[in-house]
Amino acid sequence: MGSAGSSAEEIAGERRQLINVAYRLLGSVTEAEDAVQDAYARWYGLPRSRQEEILSPGAWLTTVTGRICLDLLGSARSRRERYVGAWLPEPLPDRTEWNHVGGAAPTDPADPADPADQIVLDESVTMAFLVVLETMTPAERVAFVLHDVFRYPFAEVADVLGRTPAACKQLAASARRRVSVARAPVAASGRADVVRHVKEAWETKDIAALVGLLDPAAVMTADGGGLVGAVLRPVEGGARIAQYMIAIADRAPGLELLERSVNGAPGLVARRAGVVMTVASFDVSGGRVTRIWAVRNPEKLRPWAREG
């Protein structure tokens, strides 16, 4: 059936899926929203006769969104070279959790004003997973996300990448090997316990307890984007990270730490005078923290503005 049989509501209803695809491809809520808006602008810019020729507007929108994201990924390297310090994906809040603990209520899911509310929180958006996606080539990332995460057939992936289905299959296999080196995710309950202990030790400035909770080879990466103070290079070693965390606490009296879901996994939010300053994600193995990703760039914390 052509698009003549597709209502405006049905076409608009594709937006949630497109936002989910674009965020996983780009690691940025803002860029994902822009890519989807661009795809819709191109759809509505088509002559009515052309729209009626398109059998599946949803597939068309996915293809166009994927191509836009591919172009953005291709130019990301030069943009990252100009970025001050380390670049990390934008962290995502869990609105339902905030409402449950007495914070701001979630917006209407049908309201397109805040794309962060549209994104499904699952294992494919954990910070650890998104960081692995950053190691892939643009083509690998598109092939892997579309096929392995969203189960699009390789024939459709080929339309996005402009390659044969067989070539896309090889790209996805190459990307899959990168993902396979990552450890299996820790159960949420075990991760939450470790994160809670880190919070308690950080609040009491118990450096010995922090060192015990951090793997000796742990690495902490901070993203300030040159807009706020943040270490420009990763801090390596549990002892050094613990010292750094205590130094932060000493320099920021009144800093409040909150246990929050970050990209669907237990994390910490640091706020001061009601303003979210840092959102931290953790990777845990063997009961110890192996990686910390701390996002401090205020432009990446906009979805957290309603933290209560």
Q: Explain this structure to me?
A:
Strands 2-1-6-5-4-3 form a six-stranded mixed sheet. It has helices at 8-12, 15-26, 29-44, 48-53, 57-81, 95-100, 127-133, 138-149, 154-161, 165-180, 188-203, 207-213, 238-251, and strands at 214-223, 235-236, 256-262, 265-272, 275-285, 288-295. The protein has 308 residues and is an alpha+beta fold.
Which whole number gives the mean pLDDT? 88
Overall geometry? elongated
Main beta sheet strand tally, sense and closure: 6 strands, mixed
State the end-to-end CA separation: 47 Å
Radius of gyration: 21 Å
Strand arrangement, largest sheet?
2-1-6-5-4-3
**Percent in strands:** 5-15%
Coarse structural class = alpha+beta
Which terms summarize this structure?
308 residues; alpha+beta; 6-stranded mixed beta sheet; 13 helices; 6 strands; 15% strand; elongated; disordered N terminus
Short description:
The protein is an alpha+beta fold and 308 residues long. The chain is built from 13 helices and 6 strands.
Question: In terms of topology, how is this protein built?
Answer:
Blueprint: H1 8-12, H2 15-26, H3 29-44, H4 48-53, H5 57-81, H6 95-100, H7 127-133, H8 138-149, H9 154-161, H10 165-180, H11 188-203, H12 207-213, E1 214-223, E2 235-236, H13 238-251, E3 256-262, E4 265-272, E5 275-285, E6 288-295
Parallel strand pairs: 1-6
Antiparallel strand pairs: 1-2, 3-4, 4-5, 5-6
